[in-house]
Amino acid sequence: MRTSSGRRHLPLHAILVVVGAVMAVPLLYAVLSGFKSTDELSRNPVGLPDSWVTSNYTDILGSGAFWRLVGNSTLIAVGTTVLVVAVAALSAFSFARFAFRGREVLFTLFTMGLMFPFAVAALPLFLLLRSMGLLDNPLGVILPQAAFGLPMTIIILRGFFREIPGELEEAATLDGCSSFGFFWRVLLPMARPALGTVSVLAVVTSWNNFFLPLLVFTEDTWWTIPIGVQQFQGQYSAQYARVFAYLVLAMVPALAFYSVAERQLVGGLTAGATKG
Amino acid sequence: MTSTFLPDKRTGPGLTPSPAAPGAGRGRARRRALHWLTALGFQIPALVLFGVLVLLPILFALYAAFFRWGGFGMPSDYIGADNFTRLFDDPVFLGDLWRCLVLVVLSLAVQLPFALAMAVLLNQKLRGRAFYRMLFFGPYILSEAITGVLFGMIFAPDDGLADQILGRIGLEGLGGEWFAEPSMVMATLFLVMTWKYFGFHMMLYLAGLQSIPRELTEAALIDGANAWQRFRSVTLPLLAPTLRISVFLSVIGSIQLFDLVWVTTAGGPDHHSETMAVTMFQYGFKRYQVGYASAISVVMFGISLVFALAYQRFVLRRDLQGATTTMRGDGK
């Protein structure tokens, strides 16, 4: 295979270039359009900008509203991640290292959570959060996100915890370690790669969540980036160029995060989908 | 291989054994109880969180679906199965079911085979394959809201990029109103879904392809199998477990589709792109017919459940059989 010449691969490269163009053009188009004025965008929608207008981008970056969205999204993503990873780690530890009556029933209960669309629970969840006074409160998004993230996180962590040899636990017990001591001082430090994977998954899921913040945040105080994008488009629908600039800036954090955490993200998604 | 949604009967290595001390019955019983309480203690935070915020709402939807209820106070106007009979007379909801089926069929017939082809392509030693993998997968990590707004503008009639490009290459006839045209809206939506999601399935397949031992395809090559035969008889059967998971995720995704539709069309024009989740949202949050909206949730729940159980029973089960027969077939 390696000896085959580059020429043999030419048709394959042609396919990749075409598909790559279809994937990249919408993104490049958004970036370039953000550098045009709305007038120019309607005159010259496809080509490079005549003069590069930076005010669309700088206006948004100079406004507190955008940074507030970034701050809200960050706070909610971090809160969700810390909560779901902590709670799931305790549960996965118990599933992986204890034999106890009811374990399989309980584990099946959690895994069933993966099968059900969030939309099924959305309406009663909204009513529950309203009765708990959690509307327009970041906890109203953090707590349900953590709850819905539990199944996947528990499954991945349980798989990892089971691979740590039993001798380690025996040694720790002989040294006078309690169950929790073993979990806290031995297991968690060893599980850092797995914790990284599930954390990255939780951050991305929270960052992109649209449905739940849409229900919970009726006022703009706690809006996250996805809600902000939709609202901004509604507000400035005639100013195309500005909306494109806004979209591009809204994409940057997720893409930057992806570029630094690609390995954990892809590893986590494939592990979550294929390992039980 | 077990899938994430199957109950797992294996016991892991290094399990803390149930203490079966030889001592007196009472001491043993006490220690067992203690062991059980410790194990369960670690589960309490997860149980509380999951029970209150996942299970309770789902159970409550099952209850509320049998009432005429506006969402304030407790439901009291019990109407039996009326919400459900109304649902299956509602042309919008029947349309939702039909559109869900259309998206499932399109995903399985077009999107997943395309993802597989790209995975096979990028599994070869090609210049720039790391770049293409990243580019194809990239859209998956963008928010649906951002994707939706972006493509809403790209498919804007006349001014949008899509119509502009088609106009310049002399294919105006192919363009049009996209999201605004009843006959085109589902095709446009599917195009956007493919742009956003095929990279995810491609990544799953790539992981699956990389776990296939190179010796197997090489052995087939020596036996004189051509590229298609090698793919058809070696790669595809060994990739089957990954394919089955990917099909499952794709179907569940189609059943609950909301964000992308809500941002691009909100179900329009005239319900032509509405999904079950959008209809549920309209009734539950805009018209305050919470009992009726709950009935939609229950039907979504039922469809997911029936599909998941049937899929486990009839499709995923074959993974075991497949594994043994494949091994026998290869062991010549």
UniProtKB/TrEMBL annotation, chain A:
TM spans, by residue? 12-32, 74-93, 105-129, 141-161, 182-204, 241-261
Q: Which Pfam families match?
A: BPD_transp_1 (PF00528)
**What are its GO biological-process terms?**
transmembrane transport
Q: Report the main location listed first in the record.
A: membrane
Q: Does the keyword field hold Cell membrane?
A: yes
- Tell me the GO molecular function terms: ATP binding
InterPro entries registered for this protein in UniProt: MetI-like, MetI-like_sf
Q: Does the keyword Cytoplasm apply?
A: no
Alphabetically ordered keywords of this record = ATP-binding, Cell membrane, Membrane, Nucleotide-binding, Transmembrane, Transmembrane helix, Transport
Membrane topology qualifier: Multi-pass membrane protein
Gene Ontology cellular-component terms for this entry are:
plasma membrane
Where in the cell does this protein reside? Answer: Cell membrane
Domain ABC transmembrane type-1: residue ranges: 70-261
The similarity annotation says: Belongs to the binding-protein-dependent transport system permease family.
Protein name (database record): Thiamine ABC transporter ATP-binding protein
**The species this protein was found in:** Streptomyces curacoi
UniProtKB/TrEMBL annotation, chain B:
| Annotated segments matching region Disordered | 1-26
Give membrane topology per the record: Multi-pass membrane protein
Q: Which UniProt keywords apply?
A: Cell membrane, Membrane, Transmembrane, Transmembrane helix, Transport
**Which spans are transmembrane here?**
36-66, 101-122, 134-156, 184-207, 238-258, 290-311
Q: Where in the cell is it found?
A: Cell membrane
Q: Which residues form the ABC transmembrane type-1 domain?
A: 97-311
Gene3D superfamilies attached to this UniProt entry = MetI-like
Chief location bin:
membrane
Gene Ontology biological process terms, A to Z: transmembrane transport
Cellular component (GO) terms are: plasma membrane
Q: A Pfam family name for this chain? A: BPD_transp_1
Return the similarity comment. Belongs to the binding-protein-dependent transport system permease family.
Q: What name goes with this protein?
A: Sugar ABC transporter permease
**The species this protein was found in:** Streptomyces curacoi
